[in-house]
Design goal:
Length: 127
């Protein structure tokens, strides 16, 4: 059985999907982009600030499901320019312990929703 996870502390979906779905002990998140949930505005000041907003949105979704970044086993990062990889990775790394970091792929794509620079989704498991 699945449980829908939604929180006002992360941006509302911009399409026919939910922020996350919990199936058993496994949480599947939708991709998060850098929308400030309080204002509904995009945070595109620079790639590091944008990435931080994405990660904070993801943190809110994880918390709503009773999880944290420690529960994350897999992430997918979609970026519009691979030249931003190092800066994105620098911010991303502050949310994970190197020894227990999740599996991950990072893919450059032609476009992302609202033409942002980064989108991140995760899979987490509650032990």
């Amino acid at each position: 059985m699945k449980k829908i996870i939604n929180t006002s502390k992360a941006p509302a979906p911009i399409g026919p999907y939910n922020q996350a779905v919990l199936s058993g002990n496994t949480l599947y998140t939708s991709g998060q982009i850098a929308i400030n949930p309080e204002t509904g505005e995009l945070v595109l000041d620079d790639i590091k600030t944008e990435t931080k907003q994405v990660m904070e949105n993801m943190k809110a979704v994880l918390n709503e499901a009773g999880m944290s970044f420690e529960n994350v086993i897999k992430t997918s990062i979609f970026i519009s320019d691979m030249h931003n990889f190092a800066a994105i990775n620098e911010v991303y790394a502050t949310y994970f312990d190197d020894a227990n970091a999740p599996a991950r792929e990072t893919v450059e794509v032609a476009n992302l929703p609202k033409f942002v620079n980064v989108e991140i989704s995760m899979i987490a498991v509650k032990a």
